[in-house]
Design brief:
With 381 residues, the chain is α/β, with parallel strands linked by helices. It contains ten helices and 15 strands. The strands form two sheets. An eight-stranded mixed β-sheet has the order 2-3-1-4-8-7-5-6. Strands 11-10-9-12-13-15-14 form a seven-stranded mixed β-sheet.
């Protein structure tokens, strides 16, 4: 199998992930490792570290479906006072990540450290960068390079954001429903459900279509970052030819069409219309069949496949009471129309899960829109 190499030293990177999704991102990095040299560290809360070369960094941003961003470690040092912070910061290789005239920003978190004033930390770091480069604060305009600063017990870790916009922003979802599902979470649902693009998939409560669209991109091997730009493209040491090679390798693996049926339906006509537009922008308009239909009216294809869906959660007690019938109906429809299928659903309340009557088991727990949720999976009897 071919590998892309880059004439640069090994980079210490960190893939940021929502709580509970770290192992899934690790599995994604394992897949990238088949084509690029990459050493993966153990998952930790908030993501997992990995070491790679420049091509591997580009590939991680291009291919990761579940991570929210990729960071590159710039350096770490002890700083219990501002003069220490600025002295050590001046020695960091800022010029690898920032050009003269570019604006910069700092996202600072501090825990159990004497330097707890986040704005003051950012001001001192800006001064440190400005000692060697002509830079400006992000609010002064320009394409800002963001640095993520983590202070913990007076130890300062400085990382450069290689992604820019968060990775869930694929660029296709302009139309959203009432409670849109992030693309990264939809991809996580598919991965944890065990769907690999080799069997039919149905989402009977598709909303703005995120799950079927992510499924179609996965089935066709379309990298989620194929049509977007990244922060690393503005770095002084950006290798345009290498980046083109990495993308060409990805395009060579893409399929012209989904090998399996993918269906999305919703009782709301506006949601189906939004989903249709989003799928067209994602380049998978011909790969997903959309229908306006209630859950009870679904028409699953054959052979058996996967139902992956994100039903309403019922945050308030009164809402949960009204949703009991929906969850019970969903379970009845699955048993009547989808025997032998795999079902995965994102839920927030065990009492609603029980209404389905399905033998559901948890696959991961995370948050969605500030709500604690978990992916439940079952095989329909």
């Amino acid at each position: 199998m071919s590998h892309v190499t880059a004439p640069v030293a090994e980079l210490a990177c960190f893939a940021v992930a929502a709580p509970g999704l770290e192992p899934l991102v690790g599995a994604e990095l394992q897949a990238i490792r088949a084509r690029h040299p990459l050493t993966i560290e153990a998952p930790e809360p908030g993501g997992l570290g990995f070491r790679t070369d420049l091509a591997g960094l580009y590939a991680a941003n291009l291919h990761l479906r579940i991570a929210s961003r990729v960071l590159v470690r710039v350096g770490s040092f002890h700083a219990a006072a501002f003069h220490e912070l600025e002295r050590h910061a001046r020695r960091l290789p800022w010029s690898h990540f920032v050009k003269d005239g570019q604006s910069v920003s700092f996202r600072v978190t501090s825990r159990k450290s004497r330097l707890y004033h986040q704005d003051a930390v950012a001001e001192r770091l800006l001064a440190a960068v400005g000692a060697g480069l002509a830079v400006a604060p992000a609010e002064d305009g320009g394409a800002a390079q963001e640095f993520v600063i983590r202070l913990h017990r007076d130890q300062c870790m400085v990382s450069a954001d290689a992604s820019g916009e968060l990775l869930h922003r694929r660029g296709y979802r302009l139309d959203t429903g009432k409670a849109p599902l992030r693309e990264t979470l939809a991809a996580a649902m598919l991965a944890a459900a065990g769907w690999t693009g080799q069997a039919p998939l149905l989402d009977p409560m598709c909303g703005s279509g995120t799950i079927p669209i992510e499924a179609a991109m996965l089935a066709r091997r379309i990298p989620p970052g194929i049509d977007r730009s990244f922060a690393f493209e503005r770095w002084p040491e950006f290798d345009r030819e290498l980046w083109q090679t990495v993308r060409d390798m990805a395009r060579d693996r893409m399929l012209a069409a989904s090998p399996v049926p993918i269906l999305g339906s919703d009782r709301d006509a506006g949601a189906v219309q939004a989903a249709t537009g989003n799928a067209e922008r994602a380049g998978v308009g011909a790969d997903v069949t959309w229908r306006r239909a209630a859950v009870s009216a679904i028409e699953p294809p054959r052979p058996p496949g996967w139902v992956v869906t994100n039903p309403p959660y019922g945050v308030r007690v009164g809402e949960r009471n009204r949703l009991r019938d929906l969850y019970a109906q969903f379970g009845n429809v699955m048993r009547a129309k989808c025997p032998g299928w795999e079902v995965a659903m994102l839920t927030a309340h065990s009492e609603l899960e029980r209404q389905t009557g399905l033998p559901l088991e948890s696959r991961f727990e995370t948050t969605n829109g500030g709500i604690r949720v978990r992916l439940m999976r079952a095989r329909v009897p």
